[in-house]
Amino acid sequence: MKKFALALALGTGLTVTGIASPARADTIQSLAPTSLSASTFNSLFQPISSSPEMSSPFTYLGLAPNVSGTIESQVFQGTGAYAGLYAYAYQVDVNKTTDSSGNPVNFQSASFKFDATPVGSDLTNLGHTSYVYTVTNGTVGGLSLPTAAPGQSILSPASLNWEPNTSGGSILASFVNSATGVPALNAGGNSATFILLSDSPPSQQFVNVQSPNPVDPTSLTSVYAPTGGTPQPVPIPEPATLLGWVGALGIAAAVRRVRKSRPAAK
């Protein structure tokens, strides 16, 4: 029995080791956000003059000259232990305006090129690595104060996906949350600020905005994003890996129980 349990534990360990293989370059990864206070961020990162706060409008088709909303972005440089890193901060603001049917406009998601692998860090000193942070309790640099739309709380992206591929990396930030019934960021709301770190300098990239209302093709929205990097998957443990380790730990505990239950040798 003892030999069988030990062999099973060893086999499980080898299986887990095999599961923890590198992610493919075309993998789409969901980045789990970590809440960060505005004061903590502003103490670690400082604005840079070459990439000041940029507020880039978007207008839905047929609604011009009324601006439907803006996407704000700003780039910061790290200080102290974070010197050499850039922090890319983003926020979505939806104006109190209506579409051609008289319904308030909203904002579902946005995607843009992010041509460098996000850098993991532990800005909150919680002992684990994060690749995206959200700020709801204050202003970051020159960005707007996060504000709840009528009938909503302050919304952070419900999902933020990183996709590295051969043509360059990209970020997709979606405010739609089917689990909680949130269809979009509503009119009158400023989203939480969401932040990614990179070791690559900024450029400007166009944004693809998704909404029930199509965007006016003459309304080109831009944000700051890194350039010149080599997009790669970030080292996030896969669910199967985590489950495998849990199973291995359970088997090890069972082995210990078997040993304790055996009668002492006379």
Could you explain the architecture of this structure?
- By secondary structure, the protein is α+β, with helices and mostly antiparallel strands.
- It has two domains: 1-20 and 238-266; 25-236, no CATH class.
- Helix content is 18%, strand content 27%.
- The protein has helices at 2-19, 38-44, 239-261, and strands at 29-30, 34-35, 45-47, 54-58, 69-78, 86-94, 106-107, 109-113, 133-135, 159-163, 170-174, 185-186, 193-198, 202-210, 222-226.
- Strands 2, 3, 4, 5, 6, 9 and 13 form a seven-stranded mixed β-sheet that branches. Strands 1-10-11-8-14-15 form a six-stranded antiparallel β-sheet, with no helix packed on it.
- Helix 1 runs antiparallel to helix 3 (239-261).
- The chain starts with a helix and ends in a 5-residue tail after the last helix.
Q: Which sheet architecture does the biggest sheet show? A: 7 strands, mixed
Helical percent range? Answer: 10-25%
Which outline best applies? globular
Low-confidence stretches: 1-22, 238-256
Strand content: 25-35%
Structural class by sheet pairing and helices: alpha+beta
**Integer-rounded radius of gyration:** 23 Å
Total number of domains? 2
**Total beta-strand segments:** 15
Order of helices and strands: HEEHEEEEEEEEEEEEEH
Mean pLDDT across all residues, rounded? 85
- Our measurement of the CA-to-CA distance between the termini, rounded to an integer number of angstroms, reads 20 Å
Count of discrete alpha- or pi-helical segments spanning 4 or more residues? 3
